[in-house]
From TrEMBL:
Residues 2-67 form the Mop domain. This is Transporter. The keyword tRNA processing does not apply. GO terms for biological process: molybdate ion transport. Pfam families: TOBE. Keywords: Molybdenum. The keyword Mitochondrion does not apply. Gene3D superfamilies: 2.40.50.100. It comes from the Bacteria.
Amino acid sequence: MRISARNQLKGTVVAVEKGATTAHVRIDVGGTIVTASITNQAVDELGLAAGKEAYAVVKASDVMVAVD
């Protein structure tokens, strides 16, 4: 896989919950769960299921940092 996004988090799918049109995919990345909302069609095309390896790819124009 080649992709321009630099924030690629490799992990294991722990759950796929399909709704009417959109699914929530939960990926365990080193003990932290990252959740993505993608189409049911994308879930099927990617063959996503619990136990499979996948990447959470984060592409954002801004990242904010805050402190108390």
